[in-house]
Design brief:
Layout lengths: L8 E5 L4 H12 L3 E6 L6 H9 L4 E5 L5 H15 L4 E4 L14 H29 L5 E5 L12 H21 L5 E7 L6 H13 L5 H9 L9 H11 L10 E4 L7
Parallel strand pairs: 1-2, 1-4, 2-3, 4-5, 5-6, 6-7
């Protein structure tokens, strides 16, 4: 175990699997205490195994980030057990897609409820907790996406939702700078998570492709030649949470194998 995050208490949303769970594992290895939140009433088997491995450092709190009462309870219960929150890995998100002229209000409302409203108010309420508690050196890490860097014909709402995350990151960083709290984001590229099975199936439907073909194509199109894994996000997530990033704020770091250059 390293100690880059010793004495840190990280709250991670959308972390029962995929990128969120991988980052929770990395934070625990670096000495942090972690409160993991996700929408399921029970921990997934993978998360349950991690809870058994780190019983004194890890807790799971079922949370629906579209409900303000749930976010309030998350902040209160997290801090009650592990003390002041110093880090938020703001990861809860969903994906959907449709041709622009077929996209409907319900899809828009659902995506923006989680990816924008949920992300913003999770960030806001953790920041309010940090400011009220005088937390110095706090760090917010919002999960954006390469989709937030450009539009895509079939993915308009998701792209717009992640662009909003990048914009909120910049605004919050400026607002929190006087409080010595940093706000940054990570923009992953194509990452092989369980969600990609659904993404691939949607592309297969709308682009008339065999199942698995879209995932194959996007991996081959990455300059490094392959899709990333959840573990590929961990280095950036640990770095931005650590004191090594103490002079970095308002930035969105691309972790995408070279897909986006900035």
């Amino acid at each position: 175990m390293s100690t880059r995050l010793k004495d840190k208490h990280a709250v991670l949303t959308g972390a029962a699997g995929g990128i969120g769970l991988a980052v929770a594992q990395a934070y625990l290895r670096e000495g942090a205490r972690c409160t993991v939140a996700d929408i399921g009433s029970q921990a997934t088997p993978e998360l349950a195994a991690l809870l058994a491995e780190y019983p004194a450092q890890l807790q799971y709190l079922p949370t629906d980030v579209t409900r303000m009462v749930d976010i309030d309870a998350l902040v209160a219960q997290a801090s009650q057990r592990f003390g002041s929150i110093t880090t938020l890995f703001n990861n809860a998100a969903i994906f959907d897609m449709a041709p622009l002229l077929e996209s409907h209000e319900a899809m828009y409302d659902k995506l923006f409820a989680v990816n924008v409203k949920g992300a913003f108010f999770a960030m806001q309420k953790v920041l309010a907790h940090m400011v009220a508690g005088g937390v110095k050196g706090g760090a917010i890490i919002n999960m954006a996406s390469q989709a937030g860097r450009r539009g895509e014909a079939l993915v308009s709402h998701y792209c717009a939702s992640k662009a909003a995350v990048i914009s909120y990151t910049q605004s919050a960083a400026l607002a929190m700078a006087p409080h010595a709290i940093r706000v940054n984001a990570i923009a992953p590229g194509v990452i092989a998570t369980p969600m990609w099975k659904n993404v691939d199936a949607l592309f297969a439907k709308f682009e008339n492709l065999p199942l698995g073909e879209k995932q194959k194509r996007v991996g081959e199109a990455v300059p490094l030649g392959y899709m990333g894994s959840p573990g590929d996000i961990c280095g950036a997530a640990v770095f931005l949470a650590s004191e090594e990033a103490s002079y970095i704020t308002a930035q969105t770091l691309n972790v995408d194998g070279g897909n986006v250059m900035s």
